[in-house]
Amino acid sequence: MTGVQELSDRARPGRPEGAPISIESISALTLATHDMPRAVRFYRALGFELHYGGEEASFTSLTVGGSFLNIVQADPETAWSWWGRVIFHVSDVDALYERAVQQGLEPQFAPRDATWGERYFHLTDPDGHELSFARPLDRPPAR
User: pLDDT truncated to tens, each residue of the chain (143 aa)?
Assistant: First the structure.
């Protein structure tokens, strides 16, 4: 059994083998900022709740109903080179990664567990839009 298969089996308890993989919802939208403190204060003033990070962080996540608005710190000395990222929650991260690779797509990295509590991988579409496919972890995030 390969490492990916082992992770895949661990990451999807209760999912019958051969069951269809589904994209379930948009989990989050990630935007870049040149000034994290200003961005965090702006969104918190609107009523967004802080989930992860904060004014001093390079990555911040705010809750938006059942979804998230993520903010990533961009280099303040450079022009925008990154628009953001859309994040989809999926039924099985590892199986979708395996499908993408089998179809000749080139994810940026194999699925991994994140400190903010999701298993995920990134893929760039043909027009340069960054996509992330994720699933919340069953256990609390490691910090």
Answer: 334 333 344 445 556 677 788 888 888 988 888 889 999 998 898 788 999 999 999 999 999 888 999 999 888 777 766 677 888 888 999 998 998 898 888 999 999 999 889 999 998 876 577 889 999 998 665 55
CATH no. of 22-136: 3.10.180.10
Q: What is the pTM of this model?
A: 0.61
What is d(CA 143, CA 114) in angstroms, rounded to the nearest whole number? 9
Domain extents in the chain:
22-136
